[in-house]
Design brief:
Number of strands: 0
Order of helices and strands: HHHHHHHHHHH
Low-confidence stretches: none
Shape: elongated
Strand content: under 5%
Amino acid sequence: AVALARLAGQDKIPAERPRRYWYYAAPLGTPETRQTVRSELADKQGNPRLVVARILSRAYRDAADRKEWLAFLDKKTAASAGDAKALWLLARAYGEASVRFKAEPQPIRARKWLEQVLDTTQNASLRIAAIEQLAAGYTTARKYAEGAVFLNSAAKKFTDEQTAVAIDALIAVHIESEVKYLTMRVSLVRRRAAHLDKMAKETEDEKRKKIYLRWAKYFGEREKECLARLGQIEQ
């Protein structure tokens, strides 16, 4: 924890994929170790180091003092303004998104704070960070339709070049993720429908046959829905 705090104070902790933050958070299993790293959460300007906030949020997610951590972030957010407030809102969002028993953060839970970032700052980098988290939240929750609406709306609202380029990239990733999910879903429901049809043919029990066929029809309809959506995406 001491070594991690030293690296944090020197801004030498690299940004990682969300699941990697468990590696840094693993040694922070006690209130004392978490407090050691927390002493380096803020930089000289009093703004949060977001990498450190993500590590601490991962460490606090299973801790008994998680509520105190979130209350601390709420207090910092309330006492800030402008870009500083946006940074603390992002830190608060990371805290909310770290959920017990979930390997991946759940940014959709933090939508309230992330949307406030978009209303608070004119800084393109902070705006993009919030949009990235929201887009990831919709993808993680498999709310692809809502995610598409959000990203298209953001593209119309934020037209500066830096943000526009970032949103275009996020839209491409979002579409790719939905296509992968739908393709997997088609394969799954098709196998289930085929298996149920086979069971219906093999059974001599008419009651069971009707049940199998009813479920086979259900999965067949889900397959059609997925294929229709894939067709819409390809147009």
